[in-house]
Amino acid sequence: MAEQTILFCSQDAGGTNALFPVVKEIAKKRLYHWEYLACGTGKKILITESIFFEEGDSLNEDYIGHFMDSLLPSIVVLGTSQGYSMEKKVLRQSLERNIPSVSVIDYWSNYRQRFSGHEKGGLMLPSCICVVDELMKQEMIAEGFDPSLLVVTGNPFFSTYAQSQVRGAASNAPFLFLSQPFSEISTSFDPGYDEFQVLTDVLSSLEYIRKHSPFSVLLVVRPHPREDPDKYSRFLDSVRHTFPVKVEAHTPLSTLIGGARAVIGMSSAGLLEAALRGKPAISYQPNVQKDISILHKLRVAATITSKEALSKALLRPAAPDVALLREHYTDRESIYRVIGTIQDCIPAHR
Which residue of 57, 238, 318, 336 has the smallest Cβ count within 10 Å? Predict the structure, then answer.
């Protein structure tokens, strides 16, 4: 009997983070032969994790089909991304060849966009979808997903936080701002703010901290992987601030979070990572039309909507209940649940 092969595929950082712990466990135990097709921001993560991959940025759908015909995978395992991503191209080719497929969702947002096809309103769905928790499952059912496709597995990436040490921040530690490119997204969704308005208010609040606190103030701005870091260099040149601000696009996010006094964002997945690492995590959404913060959804922290409340929160950042968070989201069994779901979908295991 020929060895069974898994084709992994991911494009964005979130999907790649969700898959790499699964790949490592499969490789460690030599459960299956596997190949990885990657592109976009996910490639840097795989390089850091020493996972070999085929470069997919320049591949068209016909080539992907030929690649799959030569590889003959038993199953494809996918991250999820918006737009007509490489994962969707691989999924379409697998559907045409009746190859089973599993998609792993990493975060509580944009469910339908993760599976939207070329056709307006149409969805391309895999054989099975791994979801983080019951909340995500119920949200997806409310959006019209078939409950029989959804399996609660957890996010394997969260298991990497389980043993990370919780360290207090030094008095001169920087504040960390996690950006998202809301001003660049052309969709019908309007959160009521954009990254420039939020960063302006963060700068203003930190000026307040500098005047009313004995501690020094330093801000690190982390652009989103899809953002051009230079846009913040230009923006910071145009606004007044009396303390150092550094734009940092290349240092690993985990390193920046580990060294931060507090982490500020809008609805970034990095806010949950910060909370899981024991750092004060602040979701700031002025004029918010619809609160999409995961901290709010998971009842980790309330969303802050005014600059005055932001200043108070930054003056005395509150640490999360990291033990409770880790109990719910960092169990290593999530890796094995995803592997079990993959095995259930491979024809020989049915």
Answer: 238
